[in-house]
């Protein structure tokens, strides 16, 4: 196979490269399903104990990007190390809204990989898919996600008080949004961050 040249590749920036999730990525999913607190923050619930079979089925269902209304990606360093996964989901073509879910491996959090991957997918959603608004719902206490959304120029639009029940109590759900106009106004600002 010829060497792949990435210098004009849309799906990467100076920190990460996105690729299709593959069936072989089940091990990454399985390993990261043991990080119960990260999954609680991401999915607002406690997951049952992970199984190899479930991770294999999940990876098979989202391989090659698509599963229903979801486009799944693996997030890699430029050296090819898988550091996370991400999916563009809840795409509503009629109203132009969408969401993005991201999980970064605990060993790689806080290094900008999630933010860098978000920049690529936001650009795709706004500039290629003609979507108009990114909507995010974040469980209170998910400081990494809140910080990332602020860096990306998202605005806090509200708080749904005591809206999510997990870990023995009700938690607030913090709502963030970013419109295409806001994205376009802040694109230079976001690219520098």
UniProtKB/TrEMBL annotation:
Residues 4-181 form the N-acetyltransferase domain. It holds the Pfam family Acetyltransf_3. InterPro entries: Acyl_CoA_acyltransferase, GNAT_dom. This is RimJ/RimL family protein N-acetyltransferase. The lineage of its organism: Bacteria, Bacillati, Bacillota, Clostridia, Eubacteriales.
